[in-house]
Design a protein that fits this description.
alpha/beta
Length: 448
C-alpha cells in the first residue's frame, strides 16, 4: 500500500483545495491530511485565518477524500510524521516548489500544480474591509495602526486625537485625523477606544448608539453599573463590545490558562501578579496627571486578569493599600490589592512610581507556574515541581505584543456575530468593580 501525506491550513475550503486533495489521493492508496493548528499558523504569519481548527478539520472530513486527518502543531513535525506513518509520498502545491526538497531523504516529494481560480486569501479579501476608527492618545494608537496592516479585512480609516504629535504621525501615514469624535464615527464601522479611562463610558456609549462595534482598552468604565449598561446596549443593538488586555490574546498566556485549569499544578492556592513601569513619570519633568493613566487603570486590568480567570470573580474579601501622589486625579504611584477566596488567596501589585519584579506566580498543590518579567508579554513560562526533573518549559512566539491577535479576534467577532471573547463580561464587570472601589475608597488604606 502506497501512503501519501499532505499538509495545509484549508481555511474556507474551496474547489482548489478539493482538486488538490483529489490529485494527492490519486498518487497512492492511502491519504493522510495534516491540518495546521491555529498556533502553528500564527508562527508562520497566518493570523487572519477565519475558521477554527475544528471547523477546518470537519470541512476536510466532509469531503470524504482523506483516509486519515492529523494536526500539524510544530516545526519539524513533517519528518516525524513521515517516519511514524511510513509515508511513501509527500505532496503539496507547486507554489512550494523547492521548499520541501529536504524531505526526499525520507520519501518521494511531489509538487502538484495548483488549480487556477480563487484562493482562500482572495475569498477573505472579497469581504468588505472593516473601517476602524481610533480615538485616543499615546504610542499605543500608532502601534494599533501598524499592527492593523497584518490583519486581512481591516483598514484604519480615521484617528481622533487631541495629541498633536500622534496626529502628525498619523497624517504622515496617509490616515485621516480629526479632533471631532462625531466626525470619526461618521467615517468608520468600528471604533478602538484608547482615550483616558474617564472618557471610556462616554465614547463607547456614543459609538454603540451610532451603530458602531467597539474594541476598548480595559477598563471599559469606572463604575460597574456603567459597564453592565454598555454590554446590555451592545446586545440590544446587535453589536460587538470587546474589552481588550493584550496579554489575554497571546498564545502562551492561553496555553498557561488551559494547563492550570486542567489541574497540571493541582488545586490553585495562590496567585501573585505584579505589573510596574516608571516610563510615564520618568519621561515628564512635570507630569500632567489629568492626561496620564494612573497605576490602577493602566496596570490593574492586566494584573487582575489571571486572578479572575482562574479563581473566579466571587471573592470573599478584598483589601487595597495605595500610595496616591496626586489627590485631585487620584493618581496612584503604587497599589496593592489582596483577595481572599474560599480556599485560595491572590495578590496584585501595580505601579507607575515604583519598580518591582514584574513576574506572575501561580501556586498549586502539586507545583507552580512561573512567568518571568515582563509576564504580560507572555511568550515563555515554566511549570515547576518538587522534583526539578519534572519541570517543563513552554515557548510560544508572540508577535506585535498580542495587538494583531486582538484585532483579528475583533474582526472575526464582527464577521461571525459571535460576541464571546477572551475576557468575558463577568471578568470585565469584576475589573470595573475593583477600580470603582479604588476611586470610592472602599476597603482601601492610603499610605504616604
Amino acid at each position: 500500500m502506497v501512503k501519501v501525506i499532505t499538509y495545509g491550513t484549508y481555511d474556507l475550503l474551496h474547489y482548489g483545495h478539493i482538486r488538490l486533495l483529489e490529485r494527492a489521493k490519486a498518487l497512492g492508496d492511502y491519504l493522510i491530511v495534516g491540518v495546521t493548528a491555529d498556533d502553528f499558523d500564527k508562527t508562520r504569519g497566518k493570523i487572519n485565518v477565519q475558521q477554527t481548527l475544528m471547523e477546518r478539520v470537519e470541512a476536510i472530513k466532509a469531503t470524504g477524500i482523506a483516509d486519515e486527518i492529523i494536526i500539524e502543531e510544530y516545526e519539524g513535525q513533517k519528518i516525524d510524521d513521515i517516519k511514524r506513518y511510513g509515508i511513501d509520498i509527500f505532496t503539496v502545491g507547486s507554489d512550494w516548489v523547492g521548499t520541501f526538497d529536504y524531505l526526499n531523504e525520507y520519501c518521494k516529494v511531489v509538487y502538484l500544480d495548483r488549480t487556477q481560480g480563487v484562493s482562500s486569501s482572495e475569498l477573505r479579501s472579497e469581504k468588505r474591509s472593516i473601517k476602524l476608527g481610533i480615538v485616543g492618545e499615546g504610542l499605543l494608537v500608532l502601534k494599533h495602526i501598524n499592527e492593523s496592516s497584518f490583519v486581512n479585512g481591516l483598514e484604519v480609516a480615521t484617528v481622533c486625537t487631541l495629541d498633536d504629535e500622534i496626529g502628525a504621525a498619523t497624517k504622515n501615514q496617509g490616515i485621516a485625523t480629526t479632533k471631532d469624535y462625531d466626525e470619526l464615527l461618521n467615517a468608520c464601522d468600528a471604533v478602538y477606544v484608547f482615550s483616558h479611562p474617564e472618557k471610556h463610558y462616554e465614547h463607547i456609549k456614543k459609538a454603540l448608539e451610532n451603530g458602531k462595534h467597539v474594541l476598548c482598552e480595559s477598563p471599559i468604565a469606572l463604575e460597574k453599573t456603567q459597564c453592565t449598561e454598555l454590554f446590555a446596549l451592545a446586545r440590544e443593538k446587535g453589536l460587538v463590545l470587546m474589552e481588550t488586555v493584550k496579554t489575554a490574546f497571546s498564545t502562551a498566556y492561553n496555553r498557561l490558562m488551559l494547563l492550570v485549569k486542567s489541574g497540571k499544578i493541582g488545586e490553585v492556592t495562590s496567585i501573585d501578579a505584579t505589573c510596574t513601569s516608571m516610563r510615564d513619570l520618568n519621561e515628564a519633568s512635570n507630569p500632567d496627571y489629568s492626561k496620564i493613566w494612573n497605576s490602577i487603570c493602566a496596570w490593574g486590568p492586566t494584573a487582575l486578569l489571571p486572578v479572575f480567570q482562574i479563581l473566579g470573580t466571587e471573592y470573599c474579601d478584598k483589601k487595597t493599600v495605595t500610595r496616591v501622589i496626586d489627590e485631585k486625579y487620584r493618581f496612584d504611584a503604587f497599589t496593592k490589592i489582596d483577595f481572599i477566596y474560599d480556599g485560595a488567596v491572590a495578590s496584585v501589585k501595580v505601579g507607575k512610581g515604583v519598580k518591582s519584579e514584574g513576574s506572575l506566580v501561580i501556586s498549586g498543590t502539586k507545583g507552580y507556574v512561573y512567568v518571568p518579567a515582563p509576564w504580560w508579554k507572555t511568550d515563555y513560562f515554566e511549570i515547576r515541581y518538587e522534583n526539578p526533573a519534572d519541570n517543563r518549559r513552554y515557548f510560544y512566539q508572540l508577535d506585535g505584543e498580542g495587538i494583531r491577535y486582538e484585532l483579528v479576534n475583533f474582526c472575526k467577532a464582527i464577521q461571525t456575530g459571535n460576541t464571546d471573547n477572551y475576557i468575558g463580561e463577568k471578568v470585565s464587570e469584576a475589573i470595573t468593580t475593583v477600580i470603582e472601589d479604588y476611586y470610592s475608597g472602599k476597603d482601601t488604606i492610603m499610605i504616604k
